[in-house]
Amino acid sequence: MLRALADCNNFFASCERALNPALIGVPIVVLSNNDGCVIARSSEAKLLGIPMGAPFFQVRRVCEAHSVKVFSSNFSVYGDFSERVMEVLAKQARDFESYSIDEAFLGFPDMPEADARALGHRIRNDVLSNTGISVSIGMGATKVLCKLANERAKGDAESGGVIVVPYSPAGREEFLKGVKTRDIWGVGKGLATRLRGHGILSAQDLAEADPAFIRRLAGVVGERIALELRGIPCHEIIENAEARKSIMVSRSFGRPVSDFTDLSEAIATHAVRAAEKLRQENLATSTVTVFFGTNRFQKDAEQYGTSETEEIDFLTDDLGVIGAMAQRALKRVFKEGYFYKKAGVILTELSSKDIVQETLPGLGTAVPSSRNRLMKAVDTINAKLGKEMVRPASTGFERKWKSKSEQLSENSQTQEKVLPKTNGVPKRRIRFHE
Description:
Blueprint: E1 2-8, H1 11-19, E2 28-31, E3 38-41, H2 43-47, H3 56-65, E4 69-72, H4 75-92, E5 95-100, E6 103-108, H5 113-131, E7 135-140, H6 143-155, E8 162-164, H7 169-177, H8 189-197, H9 203-208, H10 211-229, E9 247-257, H11 260-280, E10 283-294, E11 305-316, H12 319-333, E12 340-348, E13 351-352, H13 369-385
Parallel strand pairs: 2-4, 7-8
Antiparallel strand pairs: 1-6, 1-7, 2-3, 5-6, 9-12, 10-11, 10-12, 10-13
Helix pairs in contact: 4-5, 11-12
């Protein structure tokens, strides 16, 4: 079986370019929540030496000097682009595994090397034309080989963004000689140092090593990496991910929050969003946990952080019930006199909505069926008119606590006319942490 890894290039920056093609060729950086740190860079920004994870205040002058376009993160838009990319990729492959927000493994029947390369280019062109997002594709007999090929494709302009690990033993050997052990997927700094101590300096050295010796040195994980480098699959493509065990929504505040009303609004907002995600995946919950805390990096300030859980004896996806549970938990543990930096909501004890049974008399009050129709109406309106067009008043109006997003793109997920279409193919919901 032939495998491939499709990886979106500079994904968040590419999404901004897809929304505004005038940004093509312009250096771009995308900032984390609260506009704190650099979490994505275009190739042009990387060449300017802007490091990943750098606090924005440290690179602000470089950005200004080189006319770098700076964006606040817009995760709802990036999530929408991810779904579109994954839908296009899934149509192309016999087997499909969404590996992350911007990566997917694909499986195909065996085919000649030239045909595999041509297929990779067709997939790449299809994703670009349907979504506006550029992907690099690495192809090979195993996931590890695909990852190595993908990394090389990103920096090899002559490949056109597609590289196939040579099928012949001699060709694969030559390919692996050019890869240092520290650059192999799954090999961390510590393992690379241990391997180097035994003269294993390249991916080819690791492929040639005795598997039993590698197992003693690096455990079964290291042994599997070595076998995959030989072209022996140890990691299959997983089409159906395990059922989600929890849903979390959290945010840092744009300014410190000390007032209960502000904290309550934030918790209510997170609870509503968590309930929405729950319904999107056809799940229900019986357990809600809230958490919040002060800024632990401010050593001179008094610290307080806690979490509290509220449970009910029936399963629900109703935003009103979940929001009420979150508020009850918050009231039990809130303390005045502290400046809080972050808060969030976690839903656990999740079950499929399809298997939820009605509660028996005396075992709890189930949510009326009319509320299900209300939830569907709310989701339909928000999907059509824009995020949070309909929401509970408990989520607040001024929301002074909201994260900073001073560099947010003018384009948004509600502007469907600027978002590429996928020829009417239904979108596949991709899990995206918020």
